[in-house]
Amino acid sequence: MNWCVYDHVHEFLVLHAAVVEKGGRALVMPAATGSGKSTLSAALVHRGWRLLSDEFALISKEDGLVYPIPRPIGLKQASIPLIRRYAPELRMGPSFVDTRKGTVAHLRPPPDSVERMAEPARPAWLVFPAFDTRVASGLAPLSKASAFIAASDSSFNYGTLGEAGFDQLARFVDQCETYDFPFDDLNTAAEALDRLADDRRNAA
Amino acid sequence: MILGDLSVAEFSQRLKGAGLRLRIGPFAVSIRYLHRDLFAPTLQFLYGDFPLLPDDTPAEFRVRLGRPFGVRRWVRRQVVFWLDDIEPFYPFPAALPFPCSNGE
């Protein structure tokens, strides 16, 4: 399958990131393959977050909000049985063997996510997850400058947007609390992100 | 009307004809079938709740299922240059019928 992308996409700054929402606020998790961001977003959806996307953060040029594109969540290898156990209510399609990635399967987006896919969310948290058993896990505050650089690395079209892209990304990063997030256990990680949302609510 | 409302026969018919159009987030996506329809039921299952759009809706994304023929694979790869240096989507084997990137 191939996607052909036209100029319309330039209405958005696009990051390679999973996005979920709670209370109108978006948690954006840019990450590369193997970081566990899809698995993490599936776990958060199970815990009541709304799925915006497991792959693309669409940040509007016009209003700076993050727009949903709630396609199926792609899971690989060990994540497939893990999520089946962790979130049995999420509906999973058949597993396929792909030569590049091993076994893959997809979660059907929850009906609520699809129904509300015209409803954007305000950027609130920018978290860089990395599944890693060798380091202490937990949310580690990240400077805005480092977050900006990491976010620009994960952007698909930051470069082509030029100065406007720079300004937009800077505004986006400014709006967010920024963290590095090494984790080694799915449930503990999901709980930590839940607390992030709860803390914010208590503070407000 | 949502994709899940179509019968399997209607779904296959529309895939093979002018294409099927779905609203996915801010985009209209057209999906056409060029190959065997082994995976149509999976596609319909995974995207079952998404709204169908009229056939004449201009699509921001055009998705072709199945293996591209001849030079088309390379033509398509050129089309994805908007993503800076990142090639967003593998030229998937025909076995994988839905939009995926080379991320997770």
Summarize the structure.
With 204 residues, chain A is α+β, with helices and mostly antiparallel strands.
Please provide a written account of the structure:
- The complex is a heterodimer of chains A (204) and B (104).
- By secondary structure, chain A is α+β, with helices and mostly antiparallel strands.
- Chain A has one domain: Phosphoenolpyruvate Carboxykinase, domain 3, CATH 3.90.228.
- Helix content of chain A is 32%, strand content 31%.
- Chain A contains six helices and twelve strands.
- In chain A, strands 2, 3, 4, 5, 6, 10, 11 and 12 form an eight-stranded mixed β-sheet that branches.
- The N and C termini of chain A lie far apart (45 Å).
- Chain B is α+β, with helices and mostly antiparallel strands and 104 residues long.
- Chain B has one domain (3-93).
- In chain B, 23% of the residues lie in helices and 16% in strands.
- Chain B has helices at 8-16, 40-46, 72-79; strands at 20-24, 27-33, 61-65.
- A three-stranded mixed β-sheet of chain B has the order 1-2-3.
- Chain B is globular, with a radius of gyration of 14 Å.
- The interface between A and B is large, with 58 and 45 residues.
Ordered list of secondary-structure elements with their pairings:
The complex is a heterodimer of chains A (204) and B (104).
Chain A: E1 2-5, E2 12-22, E3 25-30, H1 37-46, E4 50-53, E5 56-60, E6 66-67, E7 73-76, H2 79-86, E8 96-98, E9 102-107, H3 111-115, E10 122-131, E11 140-141, H4 144-153, H5 162-175, E12 177-183, H6 186-203
Parallel strand pairs in A: 3-10, 10-12
Antiparallel strand pairs in A: 2-3, 2-4, 2-5, 5-6, 7-9, 8-9, 11-12
Chain B: H1 8-16, E1 20-24, E2 27-33, H2 40-46, E3 61-65, H3 72-79
Parallel strand pairs in B: 2-3
Antiparallel strand pairs in B: 1-2
